[in-house]
């Protein structure tokens, strides 16, 4: 198994309830998983735990045979090889598109860096926009650059947190088809978080529903708190 998340528990300091309660998930290499759940169900918190921005109180996370976190180990966020795309794009406003993408390529030699920037710009079909600044791009274009930036260092895992929330409905439909193709082309193992069932169906190889901090899918139900309504994907 490429990614193994086992019995992760987590509470925010000021919270009495567990925000994440024995969350389990196994992912194959190259798979695109969607975590589908209502606002407040703990989706973003799971991504923060995976990327190392929060530390679980118990449980373990392994990526490609390496422990990222368990009782004894905690790998720092920058050492995990995880790429992230957020709903607000989070591009650096004072940097050009090319510089935004280069920023994550710290260990690369200059020529290699330039080559990789060109490769990912081609991947998202944005070669012509290399010298623009984020405010000179539409929302959809900014989101493509955010994706290119996250993919540039060839992450072992790509996390996408409601990346379409700021796009209008037409664009959302167009870009989600595109997103799946781009990710599949790179073969990047990905977790895509959303509250939108249609987004999940369009993008994911497999959908996990999340409620009250726990995961539910068809094969493995870790903890079931409250009702569980199975989903079907064609
Ligand atoms: P989702 O992404 O599914 O909308 P979140 O993971 O953001 O859910 O939030 C899960 C729960 O944790 C919510 O009840 C939310 O209010 C709470 N929460 C989120 N961030 C914090 C924080 N920094 N401190 C305290 N509680 C938080
Ligand atoms: Mg969220």
UniProtKB/TrEMBL annotation:
<feature type="domain" description="ABC transporter">
    <location>
        <begin position="3"/>
        <end position="233"/>
    </location>
</feature>
<dbReference type="InterPro" id="IPR027417">
    <property type="entry name" value="P-loop_NTPase"/>
</dbReference>
<dbReference type="InterPro" id="IPR050093">
    <property type="entry name" value="ABC_SmlMolc_Importer"/>
</dbReference>
<keyword id="KW-0408">Iron</keyword>
<keyword id="KW-0813">Transport</keyword>
<keyword id="KW-0067">ATP-binding</keyword>
<dbReference type="InterPro" id="IPR015853">
    <property type="entry name" value="ABC_transpr_FbpC"/>
</dbReference>
<keyword id="KW-0410">Iron transport</keyword>
<protein>
    <submittedName>
        <fullName>ABC transporter ATP-binding protein</fullName>
    </submittedName>
</protein>
<dbReference type="InterPro" id="IPR003593">
    <property type="entry name" value="AAA+_ATPase"/>
</dbReference>
<dbReference type="GO" id="GO:0005524">
    <property type="term" value="F:ATP binding"/>
</dbReference>
<keyword id="KW-0406">Ion transport</keyword>
<keyword id="KW-0472">Membrane</keyword>
<dbReference type="Pfam" id="PF00005">
    <property type="entry name" value="ABC_tran"/>
</dbReference>
<dbReference type="InterPro" id="IPR003439">
    <property type="entry name" value="ABC_transporter-like_ATP-bd"/>
</dbReference>
<dbReference type="InterPro" id="IPR017871">
    <property type="entry name" value="ABC_transporter-like_CS"/>
</dbReference>
<keyword id="KW-0547">Nucleotide-binding</keyword>
<keyword id="KW-1003">Cell membrane</keyword>
């Amino acid at each position: 198994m490429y990614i193994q998340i086992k019995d992760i528990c987590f509470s925010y300091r000021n919270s009495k309830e567990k925000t994440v309660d024995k969350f389990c998930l196994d992912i194959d290499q190259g798979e695109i998983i969607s975590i589908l759940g209502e606002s407040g169900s703990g989706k973003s918190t799971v991504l923060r735990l995976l990327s190392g921005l929060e530390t679980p109180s118990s449980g373990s996370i392994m990526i490609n045979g390496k422990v990222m976190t368990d009782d004894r180990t905690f790998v720092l966020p920058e050492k995990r090889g995880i790429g992230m795309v957020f709903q607000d794009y989070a591009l650096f406003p004072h940097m050009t598109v090319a510089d935004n993408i280069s920023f994550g390529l710290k260990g690369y030699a200059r020529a290699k860096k330039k080559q990789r920037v060109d490769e990912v710009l081609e991947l998202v079909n944005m070669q012509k926009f290399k010298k623009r600044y984020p405010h000179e791009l539409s929302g959809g274009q900014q989101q493509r650059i955010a994706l290119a930036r996250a993919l540039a260092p060839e992450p072992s895992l790509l996390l996408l947190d409601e990346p379409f929330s700021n796009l209008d409905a037409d664009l959302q439909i167009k870009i989600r088809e595109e997103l799946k193709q781009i990710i599949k082309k790179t073969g990047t193992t990905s977790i895509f978080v959303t509250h939108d069932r249609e987004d999940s169906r369009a993008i994911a190889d497999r959908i996990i529903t999340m409620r009250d901090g726990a995961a539910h899918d068809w094969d493995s139900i870790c903890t079931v708190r409250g009702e569980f309504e199975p989903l079907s994907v064609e």
